[in-house]
């Protein structure tokens, strides 16, 4: 067992070893997380002055506790959350405090609630259109032969869907995907100077685009989410400043395509490596929603959520100080044997306790309902259209971005 909050020899010694820069963590983080959960479930990493949680109960309790905070200004100076960085010349993202991801109440509720209301209403109205878009993309893929499922299906579907919901120009989807990949680098604690430039470039491009789009929708409303929100803003129903609305529209675009791409790719990979589960879903399509939840539990696209300790308190049996960041490893919680029976088994027929793949509490992923709709439709449509779909024998390559888990390519045969 660990000595206090330090792991024993032979177990991961620093959170940085869980980053994709470590090939073992990139290819399969689950053995590393299991060893931590069993030997040192509440770990203190002085390298980056952060706590790490890996047990389900600790993570569920912490994420649901609304007294924990998120705003970077409330973290200790010198930590990553408090403006510290892996390099002295590296600056934190300037727009972060405007995003609902990093706001605390009352600002968090003021910003999130009207956006969520409009977003969920539009998803509900558009569900038949969303499913039709998904079907059209899959129908355009080759019916036989080899193709990259990530390139032809998993990448284009989420960016097309979120773009149609928002009302952005669909002839610029390639640019949106590129800018999204650049902006998400803001979450990478070990950015290079080149990645800093990409982050800045992508962020500026998206901010300029949404500034123009908001003004265009005020002048000429259309049937889309941006119009919904600027009209709510204009009527006073949404108390949002322009910069807050713009930052959170950017967040919806980025989050709405990158993580759902990974949910699609991870799920299809799991079905192709567990053909009995693919056969079960084909035979019992009513299991589709439960299948999505099992994919989320077993191979979630987001690997980490965080909070900041608001005052001196005990978390997971360990005393923590005000301002200390707490990172919660979601995949570790989702395979905790204290909660899930046979957690290492992928089984869509088993009704399990709720996973934490979308985080929890006030900051639970706002895009969760849309991601579930997309993944459910993709799994059903793909497995129906391709009854003999299989992997084409490639070596898997996982994306190297910290806190996200998804495949770069997935070569299949129809």
TrEMBL record:
- What keywords is this UniProt entry annotated with? Heme, Iron, Metal-binding, Monooxygenase, Oxidoreductase
Species lineage, top-down? Bacteria, Pseudomonadati, Pseudomonadota, Alphaproteobacteria, Hyphomonadales
Please name the source species. Hyphomonas polymorpha PS728
- PROSITE patterns attached here? CYTOCHROME_P450
Q: What does this protein do?
A: Cytochromes P450 are a group of heme-thiolate monooxygenases. They oxidize a variety of structurally unrelated compounds, including steroids, fatty acids, and xenobiotics.
Indicate the family of this protein.
Belongs to the cytochrome P450 family.
Stretches the record annotates as Disordered: 63-94
Q: What is this protein called?
A: Cytochrome P450 family protein
Q: Does the keyword Metal-binding apply?
A: yes
Q: Which GO terms describe its molecular function?
A: heme binding; iron ion binding; monooxygenase activity; oxidoreductase activity, acting on paired donors, with incorporation or reduction of molecular oxygen
List the biased-composition ranges (Basic and acidic residues).
Answer: 63-77
Instruction: Give the SUPFAM superfamilies listed for this entry.
Output: Cytochrome P450
The question of whether Iron is a record keyword is answered with yes
């Amino acid at each position: 067992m660990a000595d206090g909050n330090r792991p024993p020899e032979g177990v991961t010694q620093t959170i940085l070893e869980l980053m994709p820069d470590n090939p073992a963590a990139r290819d399969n983080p689950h053995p590393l997380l299991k060893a931590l959960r069993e030997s040192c479930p509440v770990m203190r990493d002085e390298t980056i002055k952060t706590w790490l949680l890996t047990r389900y109960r600790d993570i569920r309790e912490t994420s649901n506790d609304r007294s924990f905070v998120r705003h970077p200004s409330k973290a200790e100076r010198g930590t990553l959350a408090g403006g510290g960085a892996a390099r002295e010349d590296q600056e934190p993202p300037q727009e972060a405090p405007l995003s609902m991801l990093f706001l605390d109440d009352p600002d968090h509720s003021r910003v999130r609630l009207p956006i969520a209301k409009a977003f969920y209403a539009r998803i509900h109205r558009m569900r038949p259109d969303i499913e039709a878009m998904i079907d059209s993309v899959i129908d355009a893929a080759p019916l036989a032969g080899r193709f990259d499922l990530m390139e032809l299906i998993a990448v284009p579907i989420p960016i097309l869907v979120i773009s149609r919901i928002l009302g952005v120009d669909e002839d610029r989807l390639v640019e949106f995907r590129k800018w999204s990949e650049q902006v998400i680098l803001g979450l990478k604690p070990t950015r290079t100077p080149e990645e800093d430039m990409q982050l800045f470039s992508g962020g500026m491009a998206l901010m300029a685009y949404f500034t123009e789009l908001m003004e265009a929708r005020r002048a000429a409303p259309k049937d889309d989410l941006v119009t919904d929100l600027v009209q709510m803003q204009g009527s006073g129903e949404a108390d949002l400043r322009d910069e807050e609305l713009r930052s959170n529209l950017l967040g919806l675009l980025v989050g709405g395509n990158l993580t759902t791409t990974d949910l699609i790719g991870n799920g299809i990979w799991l079905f192709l490596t567990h053909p009995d589960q693919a056969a079960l879903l084909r035979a019992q399509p009513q299991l589709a929603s439960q299948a999505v939840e099992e994919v989320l539990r077993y191979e979630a696209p987001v690997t980490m959520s965080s909070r900041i300790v608001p005052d001196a308190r005990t978390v997971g049996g360990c005393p923590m100080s005000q301002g200390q960041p707490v990172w919660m490893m979601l995949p570790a919680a989702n395979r905790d044997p204290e909660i899930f029976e046979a957690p290492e088994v992928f089984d869509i027929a088993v009704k399990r306790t709720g996973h934490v793949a979308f985080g929890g509490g006030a900051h639970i992923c706002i895009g969760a309902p849309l991601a579930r709709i997309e993944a459910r439709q993709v799994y059903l449509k793909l497995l129906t259209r391709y009854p003999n779909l299989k992997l084409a024998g490639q070596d898997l390559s996982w994306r190297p971005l910290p806190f996200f888990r998804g495949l770069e390519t997935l070569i299949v045969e129809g």
